Amino acid sequence: MEVESFENEEVAKLLNDWFVSIKVDREERPDVDKVYMTYVQVLHGGGGWPLSVFLSPDLKPLLGGTYFPPDDKYGRPGFKTILRKVKDAWDNKRDMLVKSGSFAIEQLSEALSTSAGANQLPNGLPQNALRLCAEKLSKSYDSRFGGFGSAPKFPRPVEIQLMLYHSKKLEESGKPGGAKESLKMVLFSLQCMARGGIHDHIGGGFHRYSVDECWHVPHFEKMLYDQGQLANVYLDAFSITRDVFYSFISRDILDYLRRDMIGSEGGIFSAEDADSAEFEGATRKKEGAFYIWTRKEIDDILGEHASRFKEHYYVKPSGNCDLSRMSDPHNEFTGKNVLIERSDSSALASKLGMPIQEYLDILGEYKKKLFDVRSKRPRPHLDDKVIVSWNGLAISSFARASKILKGEPQGTYFNVPVVGCDPNEYMEVAEKAANFIRRHLYNEQTHRLQHSFRNGPSKAPGFLDDYAFLISGLLDLFECGGSTDWLVWASELQDMQDELFLDREGGAYFNTPGEDPSVLLRVKEDHDGAEPSGNSVSAINLVRLFSMITSSKSDHYRQNAEHLLAVFETRLKDMAMAVPLMCCAADMLSVPWRKQVVLVGHRASVEFENMLAAAHASYDPNKTVIPIDPTITAEMEFWEANNSKVSVMARNNFASDKAVALVCQNFTCSPPISSPKSLEDLLSKNTSSLV
């Protein structure tokens, strides 16, 4: 619509004569977008972007829709027709329009501010919701191309998280067959995504979604929220399988972010556009121009070696967007190739009579040559906003990578686009991003966040997702060996989140503070989509917090989590597939005794670092890691005030020449363990038989 309508002079005249046009950046103001998207979804049974909504002067919605062609076609009224009809209705039926808009907002407000009928979920519901969601996802599983559902295919990481969690629970309950089946679906899906064109094989990271069922031709936009979540699920897959295929993809994503998406002070940028100019001076941008290749370009770059590369990535003279009738319905990519791996690397190496590592190293050299050429092309627009919520997702993945990737075998080889850095460097990135937010987007006096930063903080306040996702990232920073200061800040942010967003009577969190009268709806969001819902993440945060803190706050955290989930009882019962992460949160809350790993030693020591890596080596979402250095006074003071048992364990088990771990569950702790291998073995008992 931007090109078809908003750059059209005839449309511009109608808009300027009859309307006040306002363009909303939905990333900058998700609260405004949510109001009118919800209205359109209710009005038409679905929504999407671009979103066009007509409002009265007091901001009540009168009419709305998504895409409108400029002129009447495809059986749809054109945008110019819509403008004329709205103007006519405003002139002749104004009272009726205004009343219908006011009534719609009143009805939506009532429907979306749901309250809990009880203080907690009924017994058995968390387990049933988890099972139901897994069953529904399994039925939608694409056994040929991986993923859940049909085209267009989105890499919805919350679905992967649920299936991994469900697999773990089945294994623990003595059902290894079902556990392996769930895990198999996840691993195959992750492999297909990584080998598909949705993955940027040359520069790293993932595009927004695939237009076809085979993960081949993507919408080429790259979003930070996808990168953070996908890095985490590939880390989980590596933790379970120990297959460096998955650790490589995690690094691929994180190294892309480090190279292209981080500002000088550490804030992580939000997105790169899908389209760009095909050449310098081009007047029009084209979707995917930066990422796609002709056969001739590859021949010119790689010369006599081009045939190997072309076979590996299915490069064809006529273009390769022919794997599905949905890949290129308008023939936009004729003669162009979106790189995709359709053959197994081992088979191709064997065909050439060379060891697999030699083959991959040579392939890496070819990718580096293409990367260098691509770097000279006009780049897609970089959206250099720093959004708190999305940074929280990325902070989590960088922090976790710093420990989980230490499980890679010695001598693991990497090639382009992976750098192969020491995993500790990822912790530095996470801490720098968190410090950027604290310095630029957090008020130390009021304890409030701002939503985003670009050439200064935005005027928009922090929303629920900003608090919830950042708290989650800070908890990962702490558990992966960061300072206790990160845990203290997470606790302070949780207090402020409760003050601003919590419905103390009805339960759960609203998406906005409710302080801006121009935002007509406060919504209790539960849908786990491309991003998880703030309520799902908050429930998990509360579970994690009350597993660490046993002061008076602990009961408050648990009760808020119980009440929050009770608000969404009907959703968990009847539409579990819409709330996969909330299903996980409900089950986590129902686990009687969360496993705790208390790690005691000098934080700066190699022994402490090795034990920390061992504590994070196995996949277990119902595990809390508490690192503590008794020689740091502030840490001991924090634990003495907030969990005296932890402070006593630290004091009684500290030794200057080693680090020790105590694994505790159900009021019982293991003897002190000082061997990383012994700790890893103890914590991985239930997952070794899965793969």
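^ that was protein a. below is b, sequence first then the tokens
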Amino acid sequence: MEVVWTRQRAIFFGLSMIIPFFCSRSFAENPDRNHLGQDRYDEPNYGVQLHVHDHQVVIDNGIVQLTLAKPEGSVTRIKYKGVDNLLSNRYRENSRGYWDCVWQNNGQWVFFGTSFEVIHHNKSQVEVSFKRTWDPSSDDSGPPLSVDKRFIMLNGSSGFYAYAIYERLEGWIGTSLWQTRLAFKLREDLFNYMAISDTRQRVMPTADDRRGGEALSYREAVLLKNPANPDLKGEVDDKYQYACDSKDNKVHGWISQKSGVGFWLITPSDEFRISGPLKQELTSHVGPVSLSTFTSSHYVGKSGEEIFQDGEAWKKVFGPIFIYVNSVSDKKKALSLWSDAKQQMLKEVESWPYSFPHSRDFPKSHERGSVTGRLLVLDRYINQEPTPASLAYVGLTVPGEAGSWQDEKKGYQFWTQADEDGHFFIKAVRPGNYNLFAWVPGVIGDYKYDAIITIKPGHKIKLRQLVFEPPRDGPTLWEIGIPDRTAAEFFIPDADPKFVNKILVKQDKFRQYGLWNRYEEIYPVQDLVYTVGESDYRKDWFFAHVNRHGTDGKFRSTTWQIVFDLPVVEMAANYKFRLVLAGANFAELQVRLNDPNSREALLSTHLIGRENVIARHGSHGLLWSFTANMPGYLFVKGRNTIYLTQTRTSNSFQGVLYDYIRLEGPPQ
């Protein structure tokens, strides 16, 4: 090292005089960035070094040193800024940074490689592979999947990239995949501050704090009784409080206020995720743990389960994601690392699709295509001419029925958000055949462009102007809520003071623990009654339709009422009732008109949902849409009542979340 320094001394001295002149303004604006990623990278010729040993592989670019178990491919050490290992020493080496899955019969399986290969190596870049090849003739007890785990380190990069290629060959036995992810377990004596978003970040309890706490209604939720940090005493910790929609889940991680170091998982694209932009996944939680979850049944139930039939072939690339580390020289400014991580995330998003992975299964930018167009909405009962589908979510995914994208999990999805005039641009689409789907905030229903869109390398497809005609039979007599696929606009009570998470007091209140119990505190005797024209859904419509506790220890169903006046009734005509749910869990909702004891319901959803969205603090799961014809002779002139009964009563977490309800008059 001394030789290199001596040889570069003259150049370094000259640069040290020139660089401050050109860069003083940027460093003055953000002085902490001057410290990010120095170490040996100050030596310009360091490059990326690869050291292959009998039982480990070490990749080092002078900023970060990454150690991987050989041939397993587990991340055993991340050395950075004088910290010998950012990962926890509490766990075995193969349990610190690893790819795993939950598969058939809810069994967890960690993918350990059985072979190692150097894919690419020069001073600019190293890419290595750890492959687990499934052999149908062997006694391998794991899932019938071959997994090729890849790690990439670039020169000058403060971190490393990870991706994996999952594959099934034709003729293999069937199986199911409930979840797959990349997990990191960090040093608990270093990392104490977690950041998921600008509003969800805080000093966190420790794993020991949770072990000393009181388990609540399920094991993930713990009341902190005697935490090491007394400020956390009496709070609830639950990893599901930190779940995040895919569209917002671009960067999350941890900060060490002790060492001034940050650890972040950056996901630059959603193309390899499932179930569209609103699919919720776990992020980071107490451990400290950070997860990159690629597929799971969380918040969608069996719809998130990948089921492979006997003989079914399949291949999918998950990632690459970027594992980013940063630091500040002034530890008092450690929380500024979140802002830097967000800036790095924007750079990674802009760089997608990456040009450097050495896999034929990951197409580069010139091997992909794009689609542009404009979406309009035509609802003739509101406007006679089409209007822009403002801020619509528009996506390409596997061909299917309208709305089928929320159940799709084996292929790739490419989503964008239109501008206020409905113009959209979907870029970097892998070659293949797709349907184009869309949904518009504030507009009921799902749009599907009927023609198959075939993407070829380098092709830029410009679609004609598209018009979405949402479901509609007649004029709106009344409506409750906003058709935005969530229940967040409805009344969400404050948490019970005994079960508060302080960072959720002013925002994301629906993520507080135990809100399902607040319903019968607010409605101790009579169930919810909503009067059209008088009630306000933001104050008077509870966000979740849940059960009551009975005096015998069992649960009782609840029946909500919608009371409304009809000054005129067309007895021979049909009225249309539209019911849209934002989530359901082992629930059945029955709808009756003017007679709560009627033997036959006008509408029954039957048993729906395995999303566990109420227990897991969600404002939405899957979207469920229902319609019912209501004959005019069932109405009366004057006051009418629609009864909504949730009939399944095994536990507290059975129920539904409403998205939108509308009664339409006869067609005009």
